[in-house]
From TrEMBL:
Family designation: Belongs to the ubiquitin-conjugating enzyme family.
GO MF term (any one): ligase activity
Keywords on record: ATP-binding, Ligase, Nucleotide-binding, Transferase, Ubl conjugation pathway
Protein EC: 6.3.2.19
Signal peptide: none
Protein's UniProt name: SUMO-conjugating enzyme UBC9, putative
Source domain of life: Eukaryota
InterPro entries registered for this protein in UniProt: Ub_conjugating_enzyme, UBC, UBQ-conjugating_AS, UBQ-conjugating_enzyme/RWD
Pfam families: UQ_con
Active site (record annotation): C93
Domain UBC core: 5-157
Length: 160
């Protein structure tokens, strides 16, 4: 894949997102020197209603390579984010973001961000990226939920 292929697909995705995206979600290229950096996006993923994540708005960085859409973007929550499927550096471990698993070039930015939202409340204990959060999730769900609720305080709409 060429950089031109990546750019045209990202432009197409941006257009599609502007026309139709889930309520509460934000996804846009980061601005650098007054120009959009199409390869680096800032996103906000709202916690799903009816879950312990509700009312939180979680910042996700999406980094595209020149190999996109053949290879998935890398997606990051803030460093140190408490979740079984988030590495200490913030990288999100999700099968649709891994070319060895479920990534397909047809997966859209919308599908990725909805997937991240779903992952928040449905961790995959079989694929932990962070031992501490996974141990809490597996061994003490009450303590896990308390940690998530405490963390959410940083991500309320008023604190953004």
């Amino acid at each position: 894949m060429s950089q031109l292929t990546a750019v045209s697909r990202i432009v197409e995705e941006r257009r599609a997102w502007r026309k139709d995206h889930p309520p509460g979600f934000i996804a846009r290229p980061i601005m650098k020197k007054g120009q959009p950096d199409l390869f680096n996006w800032e996103c906000l993923v709202p916690g799903k209603k009816g879950t312990i994540w509700e009312n939180g708005y979680y910042p996700v960085e999406m980094k595209f390579s020149t190999g996109y859409p053949a290879s998935p973007p890398r997606c990051y929550l803030p460093e140190g984010f408490f979740h079984p499927n988030v590495f200490p550096n913030g990288q999100i471990c999700l099968s649709i973001l891994n070319e060895s698993y479920d990534w397909k070039p047809t997966i859209s930015i919308k599908q990725i961000l909805v997937g991240v939202q779903d992952l928040l409340d449905n961790p995959n204990k079989e694929s932990p990226a962070q031992q501490r959060a996974n141990d809490y999730f597996v061994r003490d769900i009450k303590a896990y939920k308390m940690e998530v609720i405490k963390q959410k305080e940083q991500y309320l709409k008023d604190s953004l």
